[in-house]
Specification:
oxidoreductase activity; four-stranded antiparallel beta sheet; binds fe (ii) ion; metal ion binding; six-stranded antiparallel beta sheet; about 260 residues; metal-binding; Jelly Rolls; 7 helices; binds 2-oxoglutaric acid; alpha+beta
Length: about 260
């Protein structure tokens, strides 16, 4: 479906081409184009799925993938909740703790489309970044290109057929007081003739007023393990993300004590 949208006729793309990143359905080329220092080699479809206040009316979602998207979202929520339970337990907390904090209430679907790039040494497909939210689920096709930073080195994250990849985001790193680390990753410009396609589900905090604060969970802070990050407001979080390209400093670096 993302591949179809990527290859779609220009009229369809143009109907959804917007650079507003705060809700609804968008189609854009190089989604952080106006914020980053250099252009990268991808097209991008996104749909805000929840909360309802930012989700588009159903008829704004292109007909060609309305049903598939709803089905995929349902599965992504199921698996996201299972993983959230395991992540809570991994912190020694009640399995429902992260969910009850409304950490998984905002969901954004992203369809990343990386067409063949004739000069892949001149740019990347997607700049080096950490995901700002809580958890990301990736479902890539079999065209290779994703890399993660391991130690000081970029390592290929080769796709397994049908395999899902879960990324910890900055938010979860902070809430877990650094027990989980957000992973730095990037996508190389696609040198294969076939397009690289990756389906992305970002889970983020819902139900969060402008002046409410989040920070390391109090039960994870002790004399032996003092807070590693300061608390922050929604305003700070949103401004940090939207004032820069993907390629510059993450929130984690700014909040580290
Ligand atoms: O294309 C991919 O597999 C990764 C996409 C990604 O990292 C992102 O959109 O945040
Ligand atoms: Fe990412």
């Amino acid at each position: 479906m993302v591949e179809e949208m990527g290859q779609a006729i220009w009229e369809l793309k143009a109907a959804h081409y917007v650079r507003d990143e705060h809700g609804g359905v968008t189609f854009s080329s190089n989604h952080d184009l106006l914020r980053s220092q250099a252009a990268t080699w991808h097209d991008y479809v996104s749909v805000w799925l929840a909360p309802a206040a930012v989700a588009p009316p159903a008829d704004r979602i292109p007909n060609m993938y309305r049903r598939e998207l709803a089905a995929w979202d349902k599965h992504a929520v199921e698996i996201g909740e299972i993983v959230a339970g395991l992540l809570s337990e991994g912190l020694g907390l009640d399995p429902k703790r992260l969910k009850e904090l409304s950490l998984f209430e905002t969901r954004i679907f992203g369809g990343m489309f990386y067409p063949y790039c004739p000069q892949p040494d001149l740019t990347v497909g997607l700049s080096d970044h950490t995901d700002p939210g809580v958890l990301t689920i990736l479902l890539p096709n079999q065209v290779w290109g994703l890399q993660v930073m391991h130690g000081e080195k970029w390592v290929d994250a080769n796709p397994l057929p049908g395999g899902l990849i879960f990324n910890i985001g900055d938010f979860l790193e902070i809430v877990s007081n650094g027990e989980y680390r957000s992973v730095q990753h990037r996508v190389l410009a696609n040198s294969h003739k076939e397009p690289r396609v990756s389906i992305v589900h970002w889970f983020d905090v819902g139900n969060w007023g402008d002046s409410d604060e989040h920070g390391p969970l109090p039960e994870l802070i002790s004399q032996e393990k003092p807070a590693r990050y300061r608390r922050f407001t929604k305003k700070e979080y949103v401004e940090n993300f939207y004032s820069k390209g993907l390629d510059s400093k993450s929130l984690v670096e700014k909040l580290r004590l």
